[in-house]
Amino acid sequence: MLTARELAGTEVVTSAVGFGCAGLFRIPQRGIRRLTLDAAYDAGIRHFDVAPMYGLGLAETELASFLRWRRADVTVTTKFGIEPTLLSKGIARVQKPVRTFLAKRPVVGEELKVAGKGPRSGALGRLLYASPGYHRQSMQRGLERSLKALGTDYIDIFLLHDPTGDLIAEAPSLIDFMSEQRRLGRIRCWGVTGQPCDLPGLMQHLGPAVVTQFKDDIFDPPLTDGHLPDGPKITYGALARTLPLMRRFLAQSPDAAQVWSERLGMNLAEESTLPRMLLSAALGRNLAGPVLFSTTRPERAQAAAEAATQSVRLSDTELRTVGEFASACRLARTEGVGTS
Fold first, then answer.
1. Which residue from 295, 282, 122 is spatially nearest to 215, judged by alpha carbons?
2. What are the backbone dihedrals phi and psi of residue 223, each rounded to the nearest 5 degrees, phi first?
3. Of 162, 160, 286, 197, nearest to 233 (Cα)?
4. Alpha helices, H only, the chain
5. With contact defined as beta carbons under 8 Å apart, do 201 and 194 qualify?
6. Which of 299, 256, 310 has its CA nearest to residue 275?
7. Measured between alpha carbons, how far is 233 from 290 in angstroms, rounded to an integer?
8. How many CB atoms lie within 10 A of CB 89?
9. 10 Å Cβ neighbour count for 117?
10. Hey, which residues does 292 pair with through a beta bridge?
11. Measured at the alpha carbon of residue 4, what is the angle toward residues 58 and 181, in degrees to the nearest 5?
12. Please, are residues 119 and 129 in contact by the beta-carbon 8 Å criterion?
């Protein structure tokens, strides 16, 4: 059974693994997107992460139809501070043929994936996304819009989306607004998502009890080493850079693959082993909240859920061994092992 996890100190309890909707619209067909969400739910995943910018502005509305009969059973994160531009909304209307085109041209797709990080990700990002600012009025408009788009009367976790320096002067009014919305029952908790290096400074102004959401994987320093504030945490990106590197290492070093399979007690030749191992490691690194994963293939949802079952949880010793394996993969990349 998929384990539950409390977002530390918030009384929000959800599944240890959550589903990130940032890449959901890489699936051109609406029916398969719905199958992917259904597969995540059927696997026991009960947390779903979305934002107004995802799917060029359509992801919240699409998630709403999935939530209609399930709202009481799931938790939802959405955000404010980055919105699709008029150009982005126009492209969204013809998204299916555009996504089909990009699926056949991965280089172009990768460029758009970078732009999809927001208005600070280059010229294309600025064409597709804009920020209304991080102040009380924009937060109120963002909350009203997301409540309507999601078809719900409350948001479980409401996050500032990659805020910039102008947040400092606005922090007191933002805190007041969020506290008021919590009292009204329109949000259950709130916080900020951004780069790990920016979070300590932001937390000085927002307070230590807010939720932080950030990218974390086995290559990063342990979350317990003091470089990030204590408190409720949601992490994502456990597979993005690690999985391709590890698969390349194993393909280029068959002898090492056998050695590490024995050390880890896992068959690294099986396709699902590495993703499960990395998600399990991410869950071991972050004990203060859920870990997000994303996929465009419905059948992978079950494998992700299996990473959060009590029976496959990594021990401290196993987690250290996974870290040693990750270090070996990085060292091999640095030294060019298996490359010409």
1. 282
2. -70, -10
3. 286
4. 30-42, 59-67, 86-92, 95-103, 106-115, 123-128, 136-150, 167-183, 199-206, 242-252, 254-264, 273-285, 300-306, 316-335
5. no
6. 299
7. 7
8. 14
9. 15
10. 18
11. 55
12. yes
pLDDT, tens digit (0-9, with 9 covering 90-100), for 125-139: 788 898 888 889 999
Contact between 18 and 290 under an 8 Å Cβ cutoff? The reply is yes
Q: 216 with 223: CB under 8 angstroms?
A: yes
CA distances 198 to 51, 128, 175, 277, 289, Å, are 20, 24, 18, 28, 20
Residue 93 corresponds to which amino acid? R
Model-level pTM?
0.89
- Tens-digit pLDDT profile for residues 145-194: 999 999 999 999 999 999 876 666 788 899 999 999 999 999 999 999 98
Q: Which two tokens stand for residue 36?
A: 């992917």
Pairing of strands 75-80, 12-15: unpaired
Question: What is the predicted pLDDT for the residue at 339?
Answer: 41
